[in-house]
Structure formats: structure tokens, C-alpha cells
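Collaboration report, partner site 2.

Our partner group contributed sequences for two proteins of shared interest, and the home lab folded both. The records are reproduced in the order in which they were received, starting with the first partner submission.
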Amino acid sequence: MSPRFITNLVVLLAGGFVVVSSQTFGAQTTRWIAFGVALGTLGVIALAQRSRARGMIQSALDAMIGLLAVWSAVASMVFNGSTLVWLSFADGLGLATLAIGGVFAHELSTERVVHSLATGEPSSDSSVKPTERYSAAA
């Protein structure tokens, strides 16, 4: 599995966990869960930035996820009561939505590569030599 897929999956699961916990637990428990998930998400995104092969779309999504995680950490310490619960719910939905966007972007780029391999389109790279076709013996 690619690091892009793994980081998006981790953020998706973390966002879903915040959504469920915000509607399940009280405000104080939700506060610390949202704060911990926000810091964990920032850590995952920071580690993911070490990879130079993430692409422009994934890097933009990572920046939005990072900004949302910073906001979630601040909001979880500033707000109380039902405001905190609903902001945590919205933050979790936002993380999950951005992560789904990252998974879609990853899968579409993978599908494009598989399609070009399946159709046998020639490469535009001059260093790639065409291969000969052999049929398999039955």
C-alpha cells in the first residue's frame, strides 16, 4: 500500500472516531478525544510530508487537513458544552471528508496508471523502450 493511501485512511478513521465520540460521550471526554486526535493527525500529516512523491493535490489536501487539525485542537480547548460537541462533530466530518477526497485522488491516479498499462499506450518518455509481445503457450 502506498503512504498516501495509508495516511488518508488513518485520517479518515480518526475523523470518524471523533464524529462518533462527539455524539456518544460527554463534553469533557469529547474535548480530550478531539484534542488528542487533532494532535495525532498533525503528527501523521507532518510525517507524511517527508515523502516528496505526494503530488500537488495530496499536498493541498494535507495542508487543509493540517489547518483543520490546528483549529480542532484550539477549539477543543477554548469552547465548552454543546458548542464543543458540535464543533468536534463538524471537525470530525471535515477530517473524514478531506481524507475521502485524498483516497479518491489516490485511487483515480492509480486507475489512470492501470488503464494506461492495460491499453498499451506508448510512453512519452524517450528512455523507455517498447517491449516485444509474446503470447503464452497453452
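Second partner submission, folded after the first:
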Amino acid sequence: MPVPTLEALIASLPSPPAVPTYQSVAPDQIPEPYRSLLVHDRHMTIAMEDFHQCKITVRVLQRRQFDGWYARQILLEKVGSGEVVQGGIVRIHLHMLDAPVQAAILKEDTPLGHVLINNNVMRHIDVTSYLRLEPGPALAAWPGIDCMSPAWGRLGILYCNRQPAIELFEVVPGNLKLQKDN
């Protein structure tokens, strides 16, 4: 599987938003609390729930299925308030996952991390790049992501049962510390 790029993941969507201006950064260049939320091998859903001390739900903004792939742009939101805690794009090689996992993903009502946990899918993430996304209008394509502050993200490949099944981009809003303080 080729190394995922932000451009390729965005292009896999039916209505690709503009690509934000970004630069690759080393993990030690990511300020807290973003570093703790991005530089790890846990499920992002669990990391977000632990940080925000609440359950997280998924909202699918757009999706596309093609050539055995399923791609979607999502937001993770706090249950109850709808406050956005993360955005993302995944491109999933469906045939690398068991039928019940595929069905749960395509149902679109449960964050991917919980789908994998609930189905006992062994997984490992190979982070290929950490990103600083610059403020500007391209971030406005992500509802709830502050387009006036830098956002932080990562690109990677999620191995499920030792198969490179999922390419992903995850972005954490630049105003996250303010959200945590509220």
C-alpha cells in the first residue's frame, strides 16, 4: 500500500474540499495537548473520550464507495453537545475486513475505533506523517474545526489483523485546549 497523502485522501471523496496548507512536523514539534492526542498507538476514539471525559459519536459528512474501497469524511463529536473534537478521512479496503466489520462500518453510526474494538479486530497504526495545518478558508470545510487557529493531525495506515486495511487522516481542532478548559 502506498503511503497515504492528504491530497489523495481528500481526492477520494465525492466532493473534495480544498486541501489545507500544511507542513510535516516532528512529534516533538507538536504542542500539548495535541501531542498526547496524536503521538500514540491507541484508538483515536478512546484517546478523545479519555481526554474529554465523555462518549464520542461519529457524523459522516460525505462518503464514496469504489473499487472495493469505502472512503468517508467524518467528524467525531461529544455525545449530547455535538461539539467537534476531531475530523478525519478514511479510505478502507473493505475486503481486508470480515463481513460483520464491514457492515458495522457501512452503517455509519459508530466511530471506527469502537467498531474495531467491538469486533475484536487486532490493529496497529503506522503513522507516516504528523501535520500542522495552517489557519485559513480550507479548514472551514470541516464544520466545527476552528479555521482561525492552526490544527494538528496525522496521516497513517491502520493495519487490521496484520493487513494494511485503512488509510487515514485525523485532525484535531486548534482550539482544543480552550474546549478542554470549558
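Feedback sent to the partner group on the second submission included the following. The two ends are 41 Å apart (CA to CA). The chain has one domain: 6-177.
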